[in-house]
From TrEMBL:
<dbReference type="InterPro" id="IPR055170">
    <property type="entry name" value="GFO_IDH_MocA-like_dom"/>
</dbReference>
<dbReference type="InterPro" id="IPR036291">
    <property type="entry name" value="NAD(P)-bd_dom_sf"/>
</dbReference>
<dbReference type="Pfam" id="PF01408">
    <property type="entry name" value="GFO_IDH_MocA"/>
</dbReference>
<dbReference type="GO" id="GO:0016491">
    <property type="term" value="F:oxidoreductase activity"/>
</dbReference>
<feature type="domain" description="Gfo/Idh/MocA-like oxidoreductase N-terminal">
    <location>
        <begin position="19"/>
        <end position="130"/>
    </location>
</feature>
<keyword id="KW-0560">Oxidoreductase</keyword>
<feature type="domain" description="GFO/IDH/MocA-like oxidoreductase">
    <location>
        <begin position="186"/>
        <end position="266"/>
    </location>
</feature>
<dbReference type="InterPro" id="IPR000683">
    <property type="entry name" value="Gfo/Idh/MocA-like_OxRdtase_N"/>
</dbReference>
<dbReference type="InterPro" id="IPR050463">
    <property type="entry name" value="Gfo/Idh/MocA_oxidrdct_glycsds"/>
</dbReference>
<dbReference type="Pfam" id="PF22725">
    <property type="entry name" value="GFO_IDH_MocA_C3"/>
</dbReference>
<dbReference type="GO" id="GO:0000166">
    <property type="term" value="F:nucleotide binding"/>
</dbReference>
<protein>
    <submittedName>
        <fullName>Oxidoreductase</fullName>
    </submittedName>
</protein>
Length: 321
């Protein structure tokens, strides 16, 4: 915490906490963003804006914060903004928020076109605001610490990842839910349009890249429903694979990542504390804002993820024609 040390103003006193506003009112905002922002001790949850005014009013009332009818008014009142919006709604609003001087806590993917993702990264740089992309595995524990340990270990030969969600499974229900229970995310139009590649692909890449190195070549093939299989060559010489879907049968759903190298086989640990992970993302954003040192999980990294996913999508489209 910083303090006002101006002797003319009397005793030193704590500086005001940075104010963070939330854009978005969907299931992810209810599950992760809003509770984490409300509980965060180093910032003030300032208010909510949403595309559905009634939903924004309901969420704001739940946490006792202001509801905004205009996102630009929220930007004007805040030091930072958190996004819980579809990627192609998020991107142009993030550019506007950066221009207003707000630091950016972005959701993944930053955008589904390279042009839009680049616009966000360039806006953050041009206006000197900090940015962090909330990639769950990079902030949840123990996965975040595990990624750092494996990146330091090096000497990797290969890796395989799978994120098999059942959001659109025929029998209904996400992994771990009762059969027939619909997923809270099943009504998401952008997820239906873009599938597992864009929704869970960023999670797999967010681990594979820091451990194995930059992606230098991409191969992609389609499987059942929205399933996509990626093969990635990394600048370390290692090759990784990733199987991604939102349509796995409930009994087959799951998440995993395995690394193999000279020191043996290492497996991604389990995690569960999503609000805690989001709180650590807030910490990372505030640290980057305070120090001026860009976070490695910022908008520039979000742009790189979009470039890789867009390349894979282009390969899939070409193969289908």
């Amino acid at each position: 915490m910083s303090y006002d040390l101006d002797s003319s103003s009397g005793p030193a006193r704590p500086a005001p906490l940075p104010r963070i506003g939330l854009l978005g009112t969907g299931p992810w905002a209810h599950r992760a963003h809003a509770p984490a922002l409300a509980a965060h001790p180093g910032s003030e949850f300032a208010g909510v804006w949403g595309r559905r005014p009634e939903a924004a009013a309901e969420l704001a009332q739940k946490y006792g914060v202001k509801v905004y009818e205009d996102p630009d008014a929220l930007f004007a009142d805040c030091d930072a903004v958190a996004f819980a919006l579809p990627p192609d709604v998020q991107a142009p609003l993030a550019v506007r928020a950066a221009a207003a001087g707000c630091h950016l806590l972005l959701d993944k993917p930053v955008a589904t076109t390279v042009a839009d993702a680049r616009a966000v990264a360039e806006a953050a740089g041009r206006h000197g605001v900090a940015s962090v992309v909330f990639l769950t595995l990079r902030f949840a524990e123990p996965t975040a610490g595990w990624v750092g340990e494996q990146a330091a270990r090096g000497g990797w030969f290969t890796a395989s990842a799978h994120w098999l969600g059942s959001v659109f499974a025929a029998e209904g229900g996400p992994a771990g839910a009762a059969e027939g229970t619909p997923s809270a995310y099943a009504d998401s139009p952008w997820r239906r349009a873009k599938g597992g590649l864009w929704d869970v692909g960023p999670h797999a890449l967010s681990v594979l890249i820091p451990v194995l190195g930059e992606v230098t070549a991409v191969t992609a093939a389609r499987g059942a429903a929205d399933t996509v299989h990626l093969m990635l060559r990394h600048d370390s010489g290692a090759v990784s694979t990733a199987a991604l879907t939102l349509s796995a049968p409930r009994a087959a759903a799951g998440v995993g990542l395995e690394l193999r190298g000279g020191e043996g086989v290492f497996t991604l640990p389990d995690w569960s504390d999503v609000p805690g992970a989001y709180g650590r993302a807030v910490d990372a954003l505030l640290t980057a804002a305070r120090t001026g040192v860009p976070d490695p999980r910022g908008a520039a990294f979000g742009l790189r993820l979009t470039e890789i996913l867009a390349e894979a999508e282009d390969l899939l489209t070409a193969a289908a024609t």
